[in-house]
């Protein structure tokens, strides 16, 4: 479900980057994940290493390189900027971990987060990659995806088309022990200036603390936070 530019060498290089982003690996694993011939995968990985987008240790394990962080430091993300002033207030209101996710193909990426200072937390750092197959954030992003994307996601999803329809009707989604055992969450859509859903905002924490129906406790606060980010966008 990843997008392609039609520029062969660029698309292959991005395939290598995404494969390493999933998990650091040696060359043989990289070839298996990308489907690229060994010589091609090695040539691209070495080129990305020269530009510091990949790095390699003495054991030959490839991982993401420091050049990505340098580039990211100069990137402007209006969603992350809008969320930065809203998430702390939501964290204070709920005393739980809060995050914002953006969909990238068949996965979702945390673009902003705020953690409570004390207590057991559901730590999801910025940049973390999570599946689109389970969890309340995944349900929200899938519920407002285009029909073709939605059909593709449903193949391996823990949720159903009927459940996504219920998410759209209700305006938020919740999950209990779907993404991780012992963790519950509730998520709502974030819309841009045109009204399109561009992200999901979530509250997550231990089931023992927030219960098996987090929506009962946090739906109103979550929807208010989503609206506050929408207005900033």
UniProtKB/TrEMBL annotation:
Could you tell me which residue ranges the IclR-ED domain spans?
A: 67-233
Q: Does the keyword Transcription regulation apply?
A: yes
Q: Does the keyword Protease apply?
A: no
Q: Which UniProt keywords apply?
A: DNA-binding, Transcription, Transcription regulation
Which superkingdom is the protein from? Bacteria
Extract the InterPro entries matched here: GAF-like_dom_sf, HTH_MetabolicPath_Reg, Tscrpt_reg_IclR_C, Tscrpt_reg_IclR_N, WH-like_DNA-bd_sf, WH_DNA-bd_sf
Residues annotated as domain HTH iclR-type: 7-66
SMART domains xrefs: HTH_ICLR (SM00346)
Gene Ontology BP terms: negative regulation of DNA-templated transcription
Query: Which GO molecular function terms does the record list?
Result: DNA binding; DNA-binding transcription factor activity
This chain belongs to the protein called: IclR family transcriptional regulator
Q: Which organism is it from?
A: Dietzia psychralcaliphila
Q: What is the lineage of its organism?
A: Bacteria, Bacillati, Actinomycetota, Actinomycetes, Mycobacteriales
């Amino acid at each position: 479900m990843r997008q392609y530019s039609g520029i062969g060498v660029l698309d292959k290089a991005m395939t290598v980057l995404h494969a390493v982003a999933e998990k650091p690996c040696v060359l043989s694993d990289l070839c298996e994940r990308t489907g690229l011939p060994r010589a091609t995968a090695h040539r691209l990985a070495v080129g990305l290493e020269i530009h510091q987008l990949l790095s390699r240790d003495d054991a030959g394990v490839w991982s993401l390189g420091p050049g990505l962080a340098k580039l990211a430091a100069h990137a402007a993300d209006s969603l992350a900027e809008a969320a930065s002033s809203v998430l702390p207030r939501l964290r204070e209101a709920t005393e739980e971990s809060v995050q914002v996710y953006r969909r990238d193909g068949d996965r979702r990426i945390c673009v902003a987060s705020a953690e409570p200072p004390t207590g057991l937390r559901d730590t999801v750092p910025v940049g973390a990659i999570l599946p689109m197959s389970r969890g309340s954030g995944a349900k929200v992003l899938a519920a407002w995806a285009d029909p073709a994307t939605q059909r593709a996601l449903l193949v391996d999803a823990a949720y159903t088309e009927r459940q996504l329809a219920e998410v759209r009707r209700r305006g938020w989604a919740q999950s209990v022990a779907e993404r991780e055992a012992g963790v519950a969450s509730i998520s709502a859509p974030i819309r841009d200036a045109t009204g399109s859903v561009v992200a999901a905002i979530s509250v997550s924490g231990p089931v023992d603390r927030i219960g098996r129906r987090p929506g009962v406790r946090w739906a109103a606060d979550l929807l208010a936070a989503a609206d506050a980010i929408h207005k900033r966008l």
